[in-house]
Amino acid sequence: MRWDHLADTPAVPADIALFGRDAVTTRVFDTPEFRGITFHEVRARSIVNRVPGASRMPFEWTVNPYRGCTHACVYCFARKTHSYLDLDTGIGFDSQIVVKVNAPELLRGQLASRRWQGAHIAMGTNVDCYQRAEGRYRLMPGILEALRDHANPFSILTKGTLILRDLDLLRQAAEVTEVGVSVSVGFTDQELWRTIEPGTPSPERRLDVVRTLAGHGIGCGVLMAPVVPFLGDRPEQLRATVRAVAEAGATSVTPLVLHLRPGAREWFFTWLRRHHPELVGRYERMYAAGAYAPTWYQRRITRQVHELAAEFGMGPAGRGAHRATPVPDHHARAVEPEQLTLL
């Protein structure tokens, strides 16, 4: 298992079993919310990662305190990153969670460095920093405190309701720096949610997060991602989702069509054959050219959602830019294992 680039301990011989002596502590908790999940606690060498210039992302730096995600979204692009550690990209990605237990102290040290120029830091760009593990490890309060204390601008993208635990810290940070929060809600269809995002809070609960943040003066956008072809893209489905987003008080809604990179693609098609075998051929044709749906289809969805957003009184995603989470360029490519793009 390749842990050397994550751990601050010396490299270990390849013949030492599994995780490398002293580099990783492996824990299993026998509680209902963590049953079947293994946590690998590492002391990372660094926590602020530079996004490769080739990615064309609208931000340069990210912080990712976890790898792997119990949200278990079958389409998650980050599944491929587990293969860099010789971990399974299917069930293993959902149940083998790497925890960078020293993330808050590393970040505070980085922000205090004379070389750090106070650039925007994006979180939730690899896996969700408010996934279930955060309820136990509580890494985000220390991360937010460091960002607040150094008045460093940041943004968070999440599907997790646990972000409300840190509402006071978000408000304090927003008083001294630019803070952007976005919640990911691709659809409101209950059946689709239960099968494709089985470990996440329901769309309704995520929209409650938007509503609560808005009620406390923290503007929150919605990343309508993914729009799932043939399962969540009917006009009435798009209308229902955009209406719910608007009623929750979101500042904007930004649609992103499902894309299927290697790692995610194989896992998604396994799910599709099990739940919707009649759609396999249509998906093979739609994604025959690569990871992305055809441009015409993406443009159609974007146009429909923007028209609905205007109808329901929401402005374009760029309005109030300092409060908005940067929207990713989906044609960005992950170049290095630790330098990953969004969704």
Q: Output the structural class.
A: alpha/beta
N-to-C span: 25 Å
Q: Low-confidence parts lasting 5 or more residues at pLDDT below 50?
A: 7-21, 318-343
Strand fraction: 5-15%
Order of helices and strands: EEEEEHHEHEHHEHEHHEHEHHH
Mean pLDDT: 86
Number of helices: 12
Radius of gyration: 19 Å
Largest sheet: 7 strands, mixed
User: What helical percentage do the residues reach?
Assistant: 25-40%
How many strand segments? 11
Global geometry: globular
Neighbour order of strands in the largest sheet: 3-4-7-8-9-10-11
Write the topology of this structure.
Layout (H helix, E strand, L loop, with lengths): L23 E5 L9 E5 L5 E3 L10 E3 L2 E2 L11 H4 L8 H5 E5 L2 H10 L8 E3 L10 H4 L2 H10 L4 E5 L8 H8 L4 E6 L5 H7 L6 H13 L4 E8 L7 H13 L5 E5 L6 H12 L4 H7 L8 H17 L32
Parallel strand pairs: 2-6, 4-7, 7-8, 8-9, 9-10, 10-11
Antiparallel strand pairs: 1-2, 3-4, 5-6
